[in-house]
Amino acid sequence: MRAALALVLVLATVMAGGTGRAGNTAAVDLLLVLAVDVSHSVDALEARLQRDGYLWALTHPRVLDAIGAGPLGRVAVAYVEFAGPAHQRDIVGWTVIDGPDGAAAFVAALARRPIGRGPYTAIGAVLDHGRALIAASGMVAARAVIDVSGDGPSNSGPPVARARDAAVAAGITVNGLPVTGTRPDPAGGYSAFVTHHYVHNVIGGPGAFTVEAAGYEDFAAALLEKLLREIRGPADEVAGRN
Prior knowledge:
Layout: H1 2-17, E1 27-37, H2 44-57, H3 61-68, E2 75-82, E3 88-97, H4 100-112, H5 123-135, E4 140-150, H6 160-169, E5 173-180, H7 194-202, E6 213-214, H8 219-232, H9 235-241
Parallel strand pairs: 1-2, 1-4, 4-5, 5-6
Antiparallel strand pairs: 2-3
């Protein structure tokens, strides 16, 4: 019901403005915060594979087709890197993607920025940060999603479940892309059970899900699957659009 009402508000905004599908960038189908782990458990090679995965997936023809199939044909995306409680950095601010040009602009801005690095993993802090970004976006959307990717559980900052519940209460869905593996990470420990942490502590809201990457070599393919599901929306909403 909430999603249906939000969609009505989006369409009403466009109609009231008397503009066409591409004319009102304040109305989008989806507000998507990409929250990307750059803590010490992610070494330089893994960080590069992770960043390259976003550069590739965000311009993929299937992603662009999924965006174009939405009611308005555009989404807004922001890219945030996070580590400890004091390390939530807006790498690329809100950018409307409504076709190849918008995707290319976002990817070009992302490619220009160096990859950060910091100690600890504060997923609760980045969820609070993403919720604030969405509230301050100035855009109207049928859905809002914070998408967290990383290879370890939260070990610092605000309690994850409390931050997740606050996001869900604000109408935001939290999805996850946990990266698993059996090798020791640079900070010590293993990432084999990170998916369990994401499922039970991180994700929440209507249609929330995780897509697991079996190591950073699998990251780009997992990211593509996840983006397609997020852009298309929950299965019941997709069925209602056909």
